[in-house]
Predict the structure.
Amino acid sequence: MLLVEIFLFTSSWAGTISYSAGFAIWGCYLVGKKIWITSILLQMDKSWMLEDRRSRAYELGVEAFLKFAVENARNENRIPCPCWECGNTKDFGIGIIKGHLFSYGITPNYQNWIWHG
């Protein structure tokens, strides 16, 4: 897995993003010695969704997914549960969702995370 470190500077924020997935950057320009990025698209690794729920890969994938979901949630205390039983139709806290993902697995056809960012 490739770990990408991106230095991002915008008019309202400057910082570093570490991301281990595919990505695309467009709309960047050089000012002095800094690259200003105006648009970025990050593609999260979703291969873990098909792994055995007892595997380390699945565990790490669940953790990354939940972190991503909370960062992109309108309400970080309750988000749609993507488990096989709930199918994004019920909202819960992260702890319950984590339990559901290990008990029931994630809905396998939920490849476009429209409810989680």
Q: What stands out?
A: The CA atoms of residues 29 and 46 lie 31 Å apart. The chain has two helices and six strands.
